[in-house]
Specification:
The protein is of the alpha/beta class and 364 residues long. It is built from eleven helices and 18 strands. The chain folds into two domains: 197 residues, Alpha-Beta Complex (Quinone Oxidoreductase, Chain A, domain 1); 137 residues, 3-Layer(aba) Sandwich (Rossmann fold), CATH 3.40.50. Helices cover 27% and strands 26% of the residues. Strands 3, 5, 6, 9, 10, 17 and 18 form a seven-stranded mixed β-sheet that branches. Strands 13-12-11-14-15-16 form a six-stranded parallel β-sheet, with helices on both faces. A five-stranded mixed barrel has the order 1-2-7-8-4. Strand 15, helix 9 and strand 16 form a beta-alpha-beta unit. The chain is globular, with a radius of gyration of 20 Å. The chain starts with a strand and ends with a strand.
């Protein structure tokens, strides 16, 4: 028996209840969750903008301690500190070639796991089966994960801050360092200064980009962007973002990172590019985007990015080392909440009061 935040119906608040969780089967790992980040993807699933079979236990940025392992697990043992990230099949061509973030089964495994036979009967509430989210469902005191999506980490950094590295921070930082891989001195604009965008700002500073232009509608977030490495900021409520970027650079930026998912902002990110520039689209929505063909023909590229094009087993330890070296202060994005206050955390994230809520679990 464990306490969890359950989503029963579209758009409803999370309900804190006791649920049953099975012992791990072959390849599975039972993790006692210390804390878990909250991401906009959780709220998209709650509101069914991204379809997830309900009822479900959401949460996909878990960090905790291995409690029990199933048969055949060799990478971790009870007592290990771990981070829980996205799940992948390990069998498709993309997984075999080191691109698990582009797994052929990514959406079925991470968003619709109750429809996968091996995940169908892992979480229960009153005889009702609950969907497992992102191979973990970490809005709970205990989570069932797989060997594919558990990363062992050293014990010299507090577990309570590490969960956001599993998705939001990994996505923003990885988009810059893994997908774009800019040369020192490259210019970059980051559209949206939430947790993903600000992680991209920190990564751009690590990569030696200059200028680093942060674009948002909240002055407080732009102020934080400056503290984290932005050389210029643009409040797009008060200024035309594209015109301002062209004024700063003279010709546009080499790279753009778009984290809002809004069609109008995606278009701005493309129009802000210099010739040969690349715009990386991270934000999620169902919007259609109209782009000018002449703009694209001038050797500009638009690419989508999943999970920062990251191999978590490699990139998450790298981010931790950068944090320990004082180069990647992602903890400045975090505000802690208890599990009982999870609905307040979601309200604060949606209103912009909190950049990255982290839910700390009580004993149980």
């Amino acid at each position: 028996m464990t306490k969890a935040a359950i989503t029963y119906r579209k758009g409803e608040q999370f309900k804190i209840e006791n649920i049953e969780i099975d012992h791990p089967k072959s390849g599975e790992i039972l993790v006692k969750i210390v804390a878990t980040g909250m991401c906009h993807t959780d709220l998209l699933a709650r509101d069914q903008i991204s379809y997830v079979p309900l009822p479900a236990v959401l949460g996909h940025e878990g960090a905790g301690i291995v409690e029990e392992i199933g048969e055949g697990v060799t990478t971790v043992e009870p007592g290990d500190h771990v981070i829980l990230t996205f799940d992948s099949c390990g069998k498709c061509d993309n997984c075999y070639n080191g691109h698990s973030y582009a797994c052929d089964e990514f959406f079925s495994l991470n968003f619709q796991a109750s429809e996968k036979a091996e995940k169908q009967h892992r979480l229960h509430s009153g005889g009702v089966h609950l969907t497992t989210f992102f191979g973990q469902s970490s809005f709970a005191q205990y989570s069932m994960a797989t060997e594919r999506n558990v990363i062992k980490v050293e014990k010299d950094v507090p577990l309570e801050i590490l969960g956001p590295l599993a998705c939001g921070v990994q996505t923003g930082a990885g988009t810059v360092l893994n997908k774009l891989n800019p040369k020192v001195g490259s210019s970059i604009a980051i559209f949206g200064c939430g947790a993903v965008g600000l992680s991209a700002v920190m990564a751009a500073k690590i990569a030696g980009c200059n200028p680093i232009i942060a674009v948002d509608i909240h002055d407080e977030r732009l102020k934080l962007a400056t503290e984290l490495g932005a050389t210029h900021t643009i409040n797009s409520k008060q200024q035309n973002a594209v015109e301002s970027i062209l004024e700063i650079t003279g010709k546009g930026v080499n790279y753009a990172v778009e984290s809002s998912g809004l069609a109008a902002v995606i278009r701005e990110s493309v129009e802000s590019l210099a010739s040969l520039g690349i715009s990386a689209i991270i934000g999620s929505s169902n919007d259609d985007v109209n782009l000018n063909i002449r703009t694209l023909r001038n050797e500009r590229t638009v690419t989508g990015v999943l999970e920062g094009s990251s191999v978590p087993q490699v990139f998450i330890p790298q981010m931790i080392e950068l944090y320990k070296a004082g180069k990647f202060p992602f903890d400045k994005l975090i505000k802690f909440y208890s599990l009982e206050d999870i609905n307040q955390a979601s309200c604060d994230m949606e209103s912009g009061v909190t950049i990255k809520p982290v839910i700390k679990m009580n004993e149980g």
